[in-house]
What we know:
Distance between the termini: 50 Å
Strand content: under 5%
Helix content: over 70%
Radius of gyration: 25 Å
Order of helices and strands: HHHHHHHHHHH
Oligomer: single chain
Number of strands: 0
Shape: globular
Largest sheet: none
Amino acid sequence: MSKQALYKIPLKQTDSTRIYVIGAALFSMLIFSIFYLEISFIDMFMGLPNFIMFFFENFLPPNVQNIQQYIPAVIDTLGYAIIATYISTIIAFIFGILISENTNKYKTIRVITRGFVSILRNIPFIIWGALLVYIFGIGGIVGVLALILVTIGFLSKSYAESIDEISGDKLEALRANGSSYLQILFHGIIPQFVPAWINWTLFAFEINVRASAVLGLVGAGGIGVLIDTNINLFKYGEAITIIAMVVLIILLTEFVTNSIRRRFV
Length: 265
C-alpha cells in the first residue's frame, strides 16, 4: 500500500450530502424571508446617502453644553447594572445548583427549575421593561427588575453548564470518603467553579450595562430616557453627545472586565 493511500482520509458521501441539504435549506429560508418581508435592497442602498446627509447635518457637531447634567443619568445606568448583576448572581447560583446534575440528583426539581429559568431567559429585557412599566410606573425600579429577571435566566443556565463540566473524579473521591453534601459543594465544586463564575458574571455585567441604557427608551430610567427625550425634541446635537457617552461607558466597562479576566481567570 502506498503512503498516499495510507494517509488518505475517506469522506462519507452521506456527510457531504447532509451539508449540501442544510446549506440549501438555510439559503431557501433567506430567500423566503426577503420576499415575504418585501425587503428591497435597492431602496436600502438608495436611501443610504440621505441617511448620511441627515446624520451629518443634524447630529454633528455634538452639543456638549449640558454634559454635566447627564452625569447623574450615567451613574444611574451603571448603578442599575451593578445592582442587577449582584442580586442575579446570588439567585442564579442557587438555580444553577438546582439545574446541574452534579449537584442535584432529583430530575423533577431540575426540570421544573430549568423550565422556569428558560421562561426568564427567553423573554427579552425590553419586553420585561415594557411590562413592568405598567405595574410599577416609570422609574428606576423597573430597569433593575427587568435586568434581574433576564440576568437570572442567563446566568442560571451558564452556571449550571459550567458546574456540569466539572470533573467528577474529585467529587467521587469526596463521596467515597463519606463527605456530606455541603462538604462536596464547598470543597469539591465551588473551588473548580470559581473561574467560570468570574467569567460569566463579568460577561453578564457587560450585557447589563448595555441593556440598562436601552431600557430607558421604555421609561425604565437611566441615560436611555435622555436619548429618547432629546431625539423626540429634535435636539440631535445633545442626543449624539449622550450616545457617545454610552459608547464610552461600554468601552470602559469592557476594558475593566477584560483586565479582571486576565488577572483572575
